[in-house]
Structures are given as structure tokens and as C-alpha cells.
Amino acid sequence: MSTEPDLVERARRGDPAAWRELYESLSGRLLLWLRARPSGDSAADPEDLVMETWLVAADRIADFAGDADAFAGWLFGIARNQAANARRRSQRRATDPVDVTEHDIWGAQEDTDVAGEDWVRRTLATLPPRQGEVLSLMEVVGLDVAGTAEALGMSATAVRVNRHRGLARLRKQGAMDRNDTQSVTSSPSAIR
């Protein structure tokens, strides 16, 4: 993302180029994070949640105070709330929607993509929720400590502690060795 100091201000004024730059730099990571999170609702399509997140961000940009780096944490916080809203809607529906991944009419993704996403989802699900959320934002998506803290509404110290404990727990469980940790932390696209 551009380090241009007025990028968010330009977006606030409605500049399409600024919105495009923000969207292009963050949407892929946002989608990756939402796919890695256990949603509890197969009807909550991650692509739909990404679009809902951007709509809320566009509607509430006037309330945001910060630069382009802080915008990422704010946006991921909105996405987290959108995912929680979708989960609550699903629980109120009291239905069991068809899992579209089981009935993919457009053709299956490559096996490695699906296997990688499933592995990350299953691995993160073995952790306490906060540790899983911190690891998915930092290690899978690539947000920094400040962005993760903003997205999850917690202090930077709590983010660091949860990251450390989550990685330690995964190593203890044998889910990761040092090479796996390095591959996930060095490349957010490692599971794509």
C-alpha cells in the first residue's frame, strides 16, 4: 500500500483512485483471512463478507482517524464484526445451509489450494479463539502488531502474548515445526 500520507484523506473525500489503491492492497489479504477463520456458517461466503466490509468502510470512513497503515487494522476489525453478524444471522435462521464447497458447480479449486486452506483452518481451530485470530491475522495475512491490535480490539502487548502462546501451543501439538512456521510467516500466500 502507498505510504502516501493523504491516501485515506483522499478516500474520505471520495477519490476513486484512493479507494482503488486501498482495495487492491487489502482485499486479497482480507479474503485470505476470512477464508482461514472458522465461520460456523457455510452460507457466509468470504467473498460476500469482503464486499460487505468494504461497504461499511465506505459508509463509515468519516469516523476513521488515522493513516493508511492504521486503516488496515480498522478494516479487519470491520470484517471481524461482519463475520460475527453473519454467524448470528445463521444461528437465528436455525437452518443448515448447503455447504457450497461440497457442491461446486463451477469446478473445484486446485487440490493444493483446498488442502492448504483446510489445513490452516483446522490448525487454527485447535487453538483458543484469541490465539487463532491473532495468528491468522499476523502469520497468514501479514498484519503487524498494531494492525492486529486494532482489528481485534486488544492491546499490542496482548497481541504479542497471544501470538507467542499460539505458536508455542502449535509446536507442542506437533502441528508445526520451525520450517512450517517460517513458511507461513514469510509468505502470506503460502496457503493459497
Shape assignment: globular
Number of helices: 9
Characterize the quaternary organization of these chains: single chain
Q: In total, how many beta strands?
A: 0
Q: How would you describe the overall organization of this protein?
A:
With 192 residues, the protein is mainly alpha-helical. It has 9 helices and no strands. Helix 4 packs parallel to helix 7 (145-152) and helix 6 crosses helix 8 (156-173). The longest helix has 26 residues, at 68-93. The radius of gyration is 17 Å and the shape is globular.
What's a quick, concise take on this entry?
The chain has 192 residues and is mostly helical. The chain contains 9 helices and no strands.
Write the layout of secondary structure elements.
Blueprint: H1 7-12, H2 16-36, H3 46-60, H4 68-93, H5 111-125, H6 129-141, H7 145-152, H8 156-173, H9 178-186
Domain RNA polymerase sigma-70 region: 22-93
Region (Disordered): 170-192
Family: Belongs to the sigma-70 factor family. ECF subfamily.
Task: Please supply descriptive tags for the structure shown above.
mainly alpha, Arc Repressor Mutant, subunit A, Rna Polymerase Sigma Factor, Chain: A, globular, 2 domains, DNA binding, sigma factor, sigma factor activity, disordered C terminus, 192 residues
